[in-house]
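To the wet lab folks,

You asked to see what we're planning to order before we commit. Fair enough. Below is the target structure as tokens, and below that is the sequence we designed to fit it. If anything looks off to you, flag it before the synthesis order goes out.
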């Protein structure tokens, strides 16, 4: 299934899953990337925002910060079974305070769209372009 939304789209990539994410601000870019990750794994319809999980990540550069934030969120799903629909991100120095709003994954109610095993550093890009922010992310599937 090829995803295209107003803030992310799938890119052609052999063997893995690649996306491009666009946003007006740095914090919004991270929030959009986290929502995109959830949308690639589970159909958003039916995901209720009855719970929340908080993450804090810090890194010396946005490249590493994007990898770490996505990896920690992915582990919330893979290990704890928490799936989110909405995300808020607050910048804190070199890091981020992230809140994921969602609920426990329930295979009887939620539609699993695909398995993502990890976030790679391959082709990972995070930066400002043309007055906005853009990221390219490749997931191991």
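Sequence we intend to order:
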């Amino acid at each position: 299934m090829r995803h295209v939304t107003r803030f992310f789209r799938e890119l052609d990539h052999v063997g893995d899953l690649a996306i491009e994410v666009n946003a007006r601000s740095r914090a919004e870019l991270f929030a959009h990337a986290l929502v995109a990750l959830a949308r690639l794994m589970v159909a958003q319809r039916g995901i209720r925002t009855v719970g929340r999980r908080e993450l804090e990540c810090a890194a010396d550069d946005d490249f590493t910060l994007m990898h770490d934030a996505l990896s920690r969120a992915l582990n919330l799903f893979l290990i704890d079974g928490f799936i989110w629909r909405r995300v808020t991100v607050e910048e804190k120095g070199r890091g981020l305070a992230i809140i994921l709003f969602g609920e426990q994954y329930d295979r009887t109610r939620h539609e699993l769209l695909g398995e993502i095993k990890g976030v790679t550093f391959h082709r990972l890009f995070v930066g400002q372009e043309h007055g906005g922010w853009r990221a390219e992310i490749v997931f191991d599937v």
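Structural context that might help your review: The chain has a mean pLDDT of 93. The two ends are 14 Å apart (CA to CA).

Thanks,
Computational group
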